[in-house]
Amino acid sequence: MRTVMQAFGESCTRTVSVLPKLKLKPEVRQYLSNAFQNKELLAEVGEQEANKKFEELLTYLSHPPGFTCVRASTHLESLETIRDQLVDELQKQVAWSSGRGPVPIFTHPQVPDVLLIPVTGPLSVCPQRSEVIVGAQCGNSVLRGANVFAPGVLSAPKYMKAGDSVAVCSDVEGRCTRGATEFQGRKVFLGNGIAVMSRAAIFQADEPVRGVAVRVQEPVYHSPSFDGLLPRLVFLQNLPSVVVSHVLGPQPGERILDMCAAPGGKTSHIAALMGDQGEVIALDKIASKVERIRQNASTLELDCITAYCFNSIRAVCADQAQVPGNGGPPFPPESFDRVLLDAPCSGLGQRPNMACPLSLREVTSYQPLQRKLFHAAVRLLRRSGTLVYSTCTVTLAENEEQVAWALSTFPDLTLQLQIPHIGGEGMPGAGLSNDQRRLVQRFSPRHEPSDSGLAGRDQSSILRQANADTIGFFIAKFQKT
Ligand SMILES: C[S@@+](CC[C@H](N)C(=O)[O-])C[C@H]1O[C@@H](n2cnc3c(N)ncnc32)[C@H](O)[C@@H]1O
Q: What keywords sit in the KW lines (predicted)?
C-alpha cells in the first residue's frame, strides 16, 4: 500500500495509508463481485477484464470525484453572473486559491446550469505530529473540501489548544471512542489543519458543540469549501443528480410529484426548470428532512413547491371521498404530469467512501422497497406522462433489474431516450436488451488522480473526465402510454 512517507518524501517520519480501496463486509463484497462478474458480462468482456474493473471500482469509490459540481440558480441570475461571483468568492479562500492563479471553473455544454471546479489530489502533504481523529462521514466531507466541524471530532490530543497545527485522520471503520486522546486503530490521513477550538471546548462543554473545530489548510485532496457560500445562487449537487431533473423535463404549468424528495436538491431544480410556474409536490417520510426541503425552497426563492411528510408507498387513494381537500397526499390515480422516484437505495455509489458498514441483508432490502414505491409512482402518473427512476448506487438489483422488472410488470410503460445522456450504458446481466441498455444511464465512477490541475488538457478531455469521474448513479426514464 502506498504510504504518506513513500509518497511525500524523506522528511515524513511516520507512515499513514492513503485512501485504501472501499472495504465492504465479506458477504457484500461477494454479492457485488458476483453482480460485476455475471455470466452475460463475462461473455462480453472476459473474466480478467471484469475482475479488474470490479477491483478498480472499489478503488475509485474510496476517492472523491474529480470535480466539485454546483447547480447555478439560473432562474435568478445568468450563469455568467453566478460564475463571476463564484470566482470572486473562491479567490477569497486563501487556503484553496493561493499560488494557483485564476480559479478554474468550467461550464458543461450539455448541462446548462452547472459549474464544475476541478479537484486536485492526492497532494504531497507531510502529516503533523499531533492528530485529530474524525468520524468517517466527517472525513469524507473533508476530502470534498469541508472543514472539520466539532460534532465530527472523535479524538484530539490531550493539550490541544486553538491555534495548534494538527493532522486530520479519518477513523474509517468506526472504532475510535469519542473523547479519546489518541487512536492506534486503522486511520487514513486526510490533511493538516489549524485547531480553531481547544480539546476542552470540543469535549467538555455542557451543550452539544457546533461550529468549525479544525480549519483544514493542507488537504490531501484540494477542493473549495462551500460552507455558507452564495447559498441563493449555488447548490452543491453531484453532476448525475443535476442530470436527473433535466431528463425529467418539467414544463411550466405542470403538476409534478417528487416522491422521495428530501433534502430537496432535485425538487428545487425541477421548480427552477419550470420557472417557478406550476406545482411541485415533494414528499418525504421523515419530518425533519421535510423541513430541509422547505428551507431550501425558501433560500432559492421558489414558491411553487409544497412539501409534505408522507409515506409515498401510501400516496395513492382510489376512493375520491378519502382524498383530502388541501391538494396534499394521498392523491387520486393519474394526478401528475411527471413523477420522479429518486429512490432510497444502498448508496454504494457515494464517493468518497472507504468503508461501508452495511450488511448484505441491508443492501438487499432496498429492491422490494423500491418496487412498492414504483407501483405507487405508476398509478399516480397520468397517461402519456413521464416517470424517472434514479438511484445513487451501483448494484444491478437496484438499477437494471428494476428496469427489467418494471417493463414486465407494467405493460403500459416504455423506456425513453434521455436528454442529456452523458453517462454510460446499462450493465448486462439483468435481462435488458442492448437497445434498452443504451436508453438508461449508468454512471460508473472512474478516477484520474491529478496533482497538477488540468494544465495542457483540452476542453473535450476535461469534459470526458467530468462525465466519468462522478459518483456512481443510475437513471431510467419511462413514458406511460
Ligand atoms: C435518495 S434520498 C432523496 C434525495 C433527494 N431526491 C434529493 O435530490 O435531494 C431518498 C429519500 O427517500 C426518503 N424515503 C425513504 N422511504 C420513503 C417513503 N416510503 N416515502 C417517502 N420518502 C421516503 C428518505 O427519507 C430520503 O430522504
A: Methyltransferase, RNA-binding, S-adenosyl-L-methionine, Transferase
Residue 303 and residue 207 share a domain: no
- Dist. CA 187–CA 197, nearest whole Å: 22
Distances (CA, A) of 47 to 24, 42, 53, 301, 476: 21, 5, 10, 52, 28
The finding on whether 261 has its CB within 6 A of some atom of ligand 1 is yes
Mean pLDDT by 10 residues, the chain (481 residues): 41 60 97 97 96 96 96 98 94 66 88 95 91 96 95 97 97 95 94 96 92 94 89 98 98 98 98 98 98 98 98 95 91 98 98 96 98 98 98 98 98 98 97 98 89 75 93 98 95
Can you give the CATH number for the domain in which 355 is found? 3.40.50.150
Does residue 320 form part of some domain? yes
* Annotated binding residues for S-adenosyl-L-methionine: 260-266, 284, 319, 342
Question: Quick one: which atom of ligand 1 is closest to the CA of 313?
Answer: 19
Using the mean position of ligand 1's atoms as its centre, give its distance from the Cα of residue 398 in Å: 15
Residue 401's identity, in one-letter code, is E
Active site residue 392: yes
Axis crossing angle, helix 265-273 with helix 239-248, rounded to the nearest 10: 50
Q: How many domains does the chain have?
A: 2
Q: Is residue 410 part of a domain?
A: yes
Q: Domain for residue 34, yes or no?
A: no
| Atom number of ligand 1 nearest to Cα 259 | 21
Mutate to test the pocket of ligand 1, among 246, 258, 260, 375 (most ligand atoms within 8 A of CB): 260
209 and 174, same domain (yes or no): yes
Predicted ipTM of the assembly: 0.99
CB 248: neighbour CB atoms within 10 A? 24
For residue 141, give its domain range: 131-219
The pLDDT value given to residue 459:
85
